[in-house]
């Protein structure tokens, strides 16, 4: 086991112990991040203390199939609940909104279900976001951005991919274009307007106080996203009297 893998597994064990929790619950999307997290979580708490939820919500059929592939390969305890009907019903009683407003309901519905099971079993909700996404706010506030523990939160996307190879995640899941599944044809890089390779280079450059080898336009874009998303990385602001 590599040092990084060992450190994360040990950290997960300590979080469970400190919280007095009995295990971990997380959502499995069929993407590389959640696949890596669930593999690490199983090493940390074992299969009996890990609940993996597959929560399609007008999702791509392939994503659901990929989630099942990972679950089967790792011998995971899973529960599948389709939230599509609830999602459509909610949209019917709400006033019309933008595509993004409608899409962000999906991860927020999923998180409500994850916390239901966390309360039911005294588990911690494990998030799957990585450092690259967190830095620019590429997550839904109180949706996939909500969790109790975040084992990949200090790992760049390229580090997550390296862990995926080490953990034996299926190649086609590693290779598939990252997507939040917000709408048909949506991809992370398409929506961000920047590739993970470029973003990781920018974040590494910031850390080393060095100029990354990316265009000035991409650098400005990334810095603007970082600035605009500060509120997403903080708790609610309190008006102190």
Protein described:
- The chain has helices at residues 3-19, 32-45, 61-74, 84-93, 99-121, 131-136, 157-167, 171-175, 188-192, 196-208, 216-228, and strands spanning 23-27, 50-54, 78-80, 123-125.
- The protein is α/β, with parallel strands linked by helices and 241 residues long.
- The protein has one domain (3-188): HUPs (Rossmann fold), CATH 3.40.50.620.
Briefly say what this structure is.
The protein has 241 residues and is an alpha/beta fold. The chain has helices at residues 3-19, 32-45, 61-74, 84-93, 99-121, 131-136, 157-167, 171-175, 188-192, 196-208, 216-228; strands at residues 23-27, 50-54, 78-80, 123-125. A four-stranded parallel β-sheet has the order 3-2-1-4, with helices on both faces.
Which SSEs are present, and which pair or pack?
Elements (H helix, E strand, L loop, with lengths): L2 H17 L3 E5 L4 H14 L4 E5 L6 H14 L3 E3 L3 H10 L5 H23 L1 E3 L5 H6 L20 H11 L3 H5 L12 H5 L3 H13 L7 H13 L13
Parallel strand pairs: 1-2, 1-4, 2-3
Helix pairs in contact: 1-2, 2-7
Oligomer: single chain
**Using DSSP, what is the number of strands?**
4
Total number of helical segments? 11
Query: Can you tell me the CATH architecture?
Result: 3-Layer(aba) Sandwich
The helix/strand order is HEHEHEHHEHHHHHH
Instruction: Strand order, main sheet: write it out.
Output: 3-2-1-4
Please give the share of residues in helix. Answer: 40-55%
Radius of gyration: 18 Å
């Amino acid at each position: 086991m590599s040092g990084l893998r060992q450190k994360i597994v040990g950290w997960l064990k300590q979080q469970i112990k400190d919280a007095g929790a009995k295990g971990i619950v997380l959502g499995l999307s069929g993407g590389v991040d959640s696949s890596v997290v669930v593999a690490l979580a199983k090493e940390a708490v074992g299969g009996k203390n890990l609940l993996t939820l597959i929560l399609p919500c007008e999702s791509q059929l392939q994503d659901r199939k990929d989630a099942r592939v990972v679950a089967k390969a790792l011998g995971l305890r899973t529960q599948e609940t389709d939230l599509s009907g609830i999602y459509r019903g909610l949209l019917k009683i709400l006033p019309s909104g933008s595509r993004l407003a409608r899409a962000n309901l999906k991860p927020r519905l999923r998180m409500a279900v994850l916390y239901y099971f966390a309360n039911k079993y005294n588990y911690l909700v494990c998030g799957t976001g990585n450092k690259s996404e967190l830095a620019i706010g590429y997550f839904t506030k109180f949706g996939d951005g909500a969790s109790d523990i975040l084992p990949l939160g200090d790992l760049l996307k390229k580090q997550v991919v390296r862990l995926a190879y080490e953990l034996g995640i299926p190649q086609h899941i590693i290779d598939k274009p990252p997507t939040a599944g917000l709408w048909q044809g949506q991809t992370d890089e398409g929506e961000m307007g920047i590739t993970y390779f470029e973003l990781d280079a920018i974040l590494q450059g910031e850390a080393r106080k060095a100029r990354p080898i990316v265009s000035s336009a991409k650098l400005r874009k990334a810095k603007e996203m970082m600035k605009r998303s500060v509120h997403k990385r903080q708790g609610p602001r309190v008006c102190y009297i």
